[in-house]
């Protein structure tokens, strides 16, 4: 009999929380055992807990920590958590006091920039908390732009400006780096004219509607898709239609779980 390997667990202590959007919290932890959580931007960790009946379960969260170096003890472990009404994980995080701990494992995953990438541009597409891996990747993108002149476009979908997670950070990064373009796509409510969020790269609609505008290149582009499964599937088919080989389309789907 082959037994599945049980992941090693470690404690995370909550340091701070703030609301990014009406239903999304940004949580900052440190490892309570004093060890570092070194990871590659794009990876995720799993939080382990039990339902009220004692059944064990887990939830996966991409690491949002802006990261480009070997982690040291006490450094921030950041995630974005969507609050789902009646959700067990939502209750866990809402009721967790500052200084309280949860059990976690990881990091896991391969949704990462690859050292051997030879592309001229990254197409980064995300919705909701699916944008958190791209926040973590910003220092690596900055390094790639400086080292080999690569460009990047972040096509980020939200229903309204108040749900544009980390929008101010991405806009500031775009303003400081000409090779990085930030295109927020609002499906319901556009920013107020003349507001800080109102700029020429804002689009009204869903992210998949604007891929054609970016003229995806089979030889020049590598695409990353993260977030709503329907969006990921639609963009995957659209990019294949533009000729991108499947290995140059990297995907991670987010499914809301209670």
Radius of gyration: 19 Å
* Sheet with the most strands: spatial strand order: 4-3-6-1-2-5
Give the beta-strand count: 12
Broad CATH class of the largest domain? Alpha Beta
Which segments are poorly predicted (pLDDT under 50) over 5 or more consecutive residues? none
CATH architecture of the largest domain: 3-Layer(aba) Sandwich
How helical, in percent, are the residues? 10-25%
Largest sheet: 6 strands, antiparallel
Query: In CATH terms, what is the fold-level topology of the largest domain?
Result: Rossmann fold
Supply the CATH superfamily name of the largest domain. Nucleotide-binding domain of ferredoxin-NADP reductase (FNR) module
Shape: globular
Provide a descriptive summary of the structure in words.
This protein is of the alpha/beta class and 258 residues long. The protein folds into 2 domains: 10-108, Translation factors (Elongation Factor Tu (Ef-tu), domain 3), CATH 2.40.30.10; 121-253, Rossmann fold (3-Layer(aba) Sandwich). Helix content is 18%, strand content 33%. It has a 6-stranded antiparallel sheet, covered by helices on one side. It has a 6-stranded parallel sheet with strand order 10-9-8-7-11-12, sandwiched between helices. Strand 1 (10-21) and strand 2 (24-31) form a beta hairpin. It is globular and about 50 Å long. The two termini are 32 Å apart. The mean pLDDT is 93.
């Amino acid at each position: 009999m082959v037994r599945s390997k049980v992941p090693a667990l470690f404690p995370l202590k909550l340091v701070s929380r703030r609301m990014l959007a009406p239903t999304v919290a940004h949580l900052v932890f440190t490892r309570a055992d004093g060890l570092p959580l070194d990871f590659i931007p794009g990876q995720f960790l799993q939080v382990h807990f039990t339902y009220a009946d004692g059944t064990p379960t887990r939830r996966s969260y991409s690491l949002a920590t802006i990261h480009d170096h070997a982690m040291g003890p006490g450094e921030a472990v950041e995630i974005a958590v969507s609050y789902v009404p009646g959700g067990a994980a939502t209750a866990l995080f809402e009721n967790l006091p500052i200084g309280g701990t949860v059990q976690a494992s990881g990091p896991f995953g391969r949704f990462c920039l690859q050292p051997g990438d030879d592309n001229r541009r990254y197409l980064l597409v995300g919705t909701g908390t699916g944008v958190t891996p791209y926040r973590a990747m910003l220092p690596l993108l900055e390094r790639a732009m400086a080292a080999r002149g690569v460009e990047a476009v972040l096509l980020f979908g939200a229903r309204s400006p108040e749900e544009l997670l980390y929008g101010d950070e991405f806009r500031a990064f775009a303003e400081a780096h000409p090779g990085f373009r930030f295109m927020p796509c609002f499906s319901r409510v556009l920013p107020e004219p003349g507001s800080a969020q109102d700029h020429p790269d804002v689009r009204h609609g869903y992210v998949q509607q604007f891929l054609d505008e970016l003229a995806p290149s089979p030889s020049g582009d590598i695409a990353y898709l993260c977030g709503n499964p329907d969006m990921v599937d639609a963009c995957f088919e659209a990019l294949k239609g533009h000729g991108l080989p499947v290995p140059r389309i990297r995907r991670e789907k987010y499914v809301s779980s209670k």
